[in-house]
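Box S1 | Example of a co-folding query
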Amino acid sequence: MVKKSELTPTMTIRGVTLFQGLLNRPEQVQILEDLREVARAAPFFRPVTSRGQQMSVRMTSAGAVGWISDRKGYRYQDHHPDGQGWPRIPDSILAVWTRVAPDAREPDSCLVNFYDPDARMGMHQDRDEADLDQPVVSISLGDDALFRIGNLTRGGKTESVWLKSGDALVMGGPARLVFHGIDRIRAGSSQLLPDGGRINLTLRVAR
Ligand code: MD3
Ligand code: FE
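Box S1 (continued) | Returned holo structure for MD3
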């Protein structure tokens, strides 16, 4: 019997599995090139909450469905706010899912979040997906981000970790529903993006 090779996480925080330095520079550059095509087909937009507040993060998606928020609320939908369908999830990105979550179903949504140095994301849960037994995989590119992990209910003690370009995270099992957010971006900490900032990819089985 030959055992399938397994990746070893660098650490686990509250059930969130970190693979620090998973992607080497050429792998990051390939994903970035593929994301340029995604953004050409589905340009970044700035989501608005149902209360009319602009989010500081800019977003787009690839896959059968993308996550959007507007005055009507937030949801997964099969087309960009401008009306066109979303582009396919690039193979370079799907390959990361297969490496870190080999037993999961294939993802049907890849949310692309862009953070400029002033952007942040408040503490929230991801619970809009149909099958919460499927993991969420996150890939960080560009500037470092301070990621905060909380609890299964809002409030309480939290733990933080800096995410760096090339890191991947897997949220599965009990950790799938923990509150989490991005407190700040360390401007100028990476040379990957020509104009700076951070891109986070979140791969999900949404439907
Ligand atoms: C823990 N994005 O898009 S990625 C999001 O860096 C989101 O853009 C952040 O939270 C970002 O919803 C954090 C890490 C992450 C993503 C999904 C999770 C952590 C998670 C789902 C459940 C638990
Ligand atoms: Fe989230």
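The chain has two helices and 13 strands. Residues 23 and 166 are 5 Å apart (CA to CA).
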